[in-house]
Amino acid sequence: MSKATNRDDGPAITFYRLQACPYCERVARALGELGLEYRSRFVEPLHSRRDVVKRVAGVRTVPVIVDHETGVTMAESANIVDYLESTYGAGSAADSTTADGATAETGGDD
Amino acid sequence: MPEFDVVELEPTDHLGPGETAPDFTRPLVTDEFWEDRSLAEFVDGRTILVFTPMIGSFVAKYVWDELAERGWLEREERVVGVTASTPYGISRFLDENDLPVEIFADPTNGIAADYGIAHDLDGMTGIGEPRLAFVALEADRSIESVWVADEWPEFPDYEALEAELGLD
């Protein structure tokens, strides 16, 4: 087992991602646009090699974020972007454009 | 007479005791994932840096098997690897060999160059890897002792190495 899985310091958001995965890049862009600091943890393409994501989030898809500040763990890019916008964005949950777009694109993660 | 060559490596001007180990940031790889970490962030007590040839070489396999066998991975000192492989290769290696250790991935071999222990591979143009080397660090990253291979391949006398690194 890994010693690096528990961290007391560092950014509040841990971002589980797959290299070159468009859904993950979408989350990365949202994190960047909101100016949020995050720690990227890269996993492998094979779902069978993603035990860490399964333990953390109960799924084997990425992206997944863990927000240590709020205690939220979340999968699916559309949900994550919606969560980030509503929690950290200037427009908060009232931003209906973001919410509509998110709903339409749910469910296509790697 | 044996007809094989153990290559004698060029003398190095590697870092030595009393110097501060240069900091670096690279993906630190576990058997499950990798994330950017700095050496400064990692070192919070006595630490042994283990530089090996790239993953896939028998040297890397022999060394990590031996260190696991000798209990290095359960010691009070933290042991961490550095090698010139991709995170993917390192993560598979740790998983397949059931090694509870983390290794910094440095495919371009820049860390070994900074530490003065880079080895350019004959017949693999453009590819370098670290020499086998062990560096014992204090909590402030000052170097206590160093062992660097002079030949290729060369394995240490592990009992003498443990004494030299203060792992008695």
DSSP summary: helix tally of chain A: 4
Number of domains of chain A: 1
The CATH architecture of chain B is 3-Layer(aba) Sandwich
Quantity of strands of chain A, as a count = 4
Written account of the structure:
The complex is a heterodimer of chains A (110) and B (168). Chain A has 110 residues and is α+β, with helices and mostly antiparallel strands. Chain A has one domain: Glutaredoxin. Chain A is built from four helices and four strands; from the N terminus they run βαβαββαα. In chain A, strands 2-1-3-4 form a four-stranded mixed sheet, with helices on both faces. In chain A, strand 1, helix 1 (22-33) and strand 2 (38-43) form a beta-alpha-beta unit. The longest helix of chain A has 12 residues, at 22-33. Chain A is globular and about 40 Å long. Chain A starts with 12 loop residues before the first strand and ends in a 6-residue tail after the last helix. Mean pLDDT of chain A is 85; it is low at 1-6 and 94-105. Chain B has 168 residues and is of the alpha+beta class. Chain B has a single domain (18-164), classed as Glutaredoxin. Chain B has helices at residues 39-42, 58-69, 87-96, 110-115, 158-164; strands at residues 7-8, 25-29, 34-38, 47-51, 78-83, 102-105, 118-120, 128-130, 133-137, 143-148, 151-152. In chain B, strands 3-2-6-5-4-9-10 form a seven-stranded mixed sheet. Chain B is globular and about 50 Å long. The A-B interface holds A 1-5, 16, 39-44, 49-52 and B 27-28, 30-37, 87-88, 91, 95, 100, 102.
